[in-house]
Amino acid sequence: MASVGVLPFIFLVLVVECSARPLYPLPSKTNRQPLQTFRPFNIAHRGSNGEIPEETAAAYLRAIEEGADFIETDILASKDGALICFHDVTLDDTTDVAEHKEFADRKRTYDVQGVNTTGFFTVDFTLKELKTLRVKQRYPFRDQQYNGKYQIITFDEFISIALDAPRVVGIYPEIKNPVHINQHVKWSDGKKFEDKFVETLKKYGYKGSYMSKEWLKQPAFIQSFAPTSIIHISKLTDLPKVFLIYDVTMPTEDTNQTYWEITSDAYLDFIKDYVMGIGPWKDTVVPVENNYLQTPTDLVARAHARNLQVHPYTYRNENSFLHLNFSQDPFAEYDYWINKVGVDGLFTDFTGTLHKFQEWTSPFSHDDNESALLHKIASMVSKYRKH
Ligand SMILES: *[C@@H]1O[C@H](CO)[C@@H](O)[C@H](O)[C@H]1NC(C)=O
Ligand SMILES: *[C@@H]1O[C@H](CO)[C@@H](O)[C@H](O)[C@H]1NC(C)=O
Ligand SMILES: *[C@@H]1O[C@H](CO)[C@@H](O)[C@H](O)[C@H]1NC(C)=O
Ligand SMILES: *[C@@H]1O[C@H](CO)[C@@H](O)[C@H](O)[C@H]1NC(C)=O
Q: Domain of life of the organism in this record (predicted)?
């Protein structure tokens, strides 16, 4: 693989290896490029799932490569209490479970948040069994070539991907369907799903309030649609929490409160003592009719007035998701939400697209200094050494 272009670096290898001290800062976990905090957060929704099947290691690695500030995940549990990264309570839509004859008798119907749901539930499989499945792409119009290649990963494995990243990359885990999980999974120590979730974060050193020194070292946001879970975990950790808000027709999954109630001034005044932000569905912030945006609500203004950040979900490149005002241009959508609505973070299926938009419109001050240049050369040299 050696080419002429690489030859000049051989000299540098010699210089570096002969000197007593490296000329460049060695990449290390204590000296990584910090989290950017000067522009809205790029939150990689289930990894770079627009390209690679959701919630897999490959999707998260791709998102980190593409410039994610945070990698986002949904935490559910297996029958034996392992915390896993998976979105749906059933395995049917994004794995090959239907092709596993040995599991044919596991199909069940449970009442999940008032809806009778039939399928293969994560809570009826041990972690070992879940690891025999392979994940597939959710949408037929996305790249299918990775189907069948990747396993479901655990919360622990997800965290190690973030901690091993070449720069500081935050994590953004959701306590998914806590009512359902606590109904079906029992831990031997009598603890609840929420306790296990926080224990895992603590095990890896995640702690500290928003923008504290500890938090900036290992940034994390905890998200949930369930106010009961948020209030419970606020007693266990001071990590920042984000209250998720669904579509206007959906009641909360645990307290059965209406959308009108949980977005009222009185409720925002109550929840702001527990959370640093809200994560609303974007069509809830700016209603949509016939695929056209309507008059925006005042939700962002009312949240900002209470010093709450707003991180809407989910931004997707495809025509089928882009409202017609944006002329089929995802950059136009980002421009609207960042520069007109003024949100503080965006959950996106296409981290690379959002990153490019932000680099073009609000770039980092590029590190063209000597130290940064040597760092770049050093990483090229180390690539050459491996061949
Ligand atoms: C779910 O199915 C059971 C059994 O068929 C039925 O009794 C119950 O009313 C159903 N619940 C809902 C919410 O549809
Ligand atoms: C939730 O509240 C609605 C009314 O707001 C009520 O009709 C429904 O039965 C409640 N559901 C549960 C599970 O309490
Ligand atoms: C989107 O298009 C609709 C229909 O033309 C228009 O009424 C609305 O004001 C537009 N919204 C924005 C934010 O451009
Ligand atoms: C030079 O670049 C490095 C690596 O990106 C950065 O840590 C450092 O702060 C920069 N120094 C100056 C003086 O800008």
A: Eukaryota
CA of 256 to the centre of ligand 2 (A): 6
* Other beta carbons within 10 Å of 329: 12
**Predicted structure pTM score:** 0.86
φ/ψ of 107, rounded to 5, equals -65, 135
- Of all protein residues, whose CA lies closest to atom 2 belonging to ligand 1? 116
Which ligand sits closest to the CA of 327?
Answer: 3
Cα-Cα-Cα-Cα torsion 124, 129, 130, 132, nearest 10 degrees, comes to: -150
Query: CB-based burial of residue 53 (10 Å sphere; 0-12 exposed, 13-18 middle, 19+ buried)?
Result: buried
How far apart are alpha carbons 215 and 218 in whole angstroms?
5
Q: Which ligand is nearest to the CA of 117?
A: 1
Residue 2 pLDDT exceeds 80 = no
Residue whose Cα lies nearest atom 7 of ligand 2: it is: 256
Q: Over 50: is that where the pLDDT of 115 sits?
A: yes
Show me where the domains of the chain are located: 1-17+366-387, 37-89+153-363
Q: Atom 14, ligand 1: which residue's CA is nearest?
A: 116
Q: CATH homologous superfamily of domain 37-89+153-363?
A: Phosphatidylinositol (PI) phosphodiesterase (3.20.20.190)
Q: What is the bridge-based pairing of β-strands 292-293 and 288-289?
A: antiparallel
Residues with CB under 6 A from ligand 1: 111, 114, 116
Residue 75: strand pairing partners: 85, 175
| Tens digits of residue pLDDT in 299-332 | 999 999 999 999 999 999 999 999 999 999 999 9
Q: How far apart are CA 123 and CA 359, in angstroms?
A: 42
The pLDDT, as a whole number, for residue 67 is 98
Cα–Cα distance between 146 and 136 in angstroms, integer?
7
Which ligand is nearest the CA of 295, by number? 3
* C-alpha 28 – ligand 4 centre gap (Å): 15
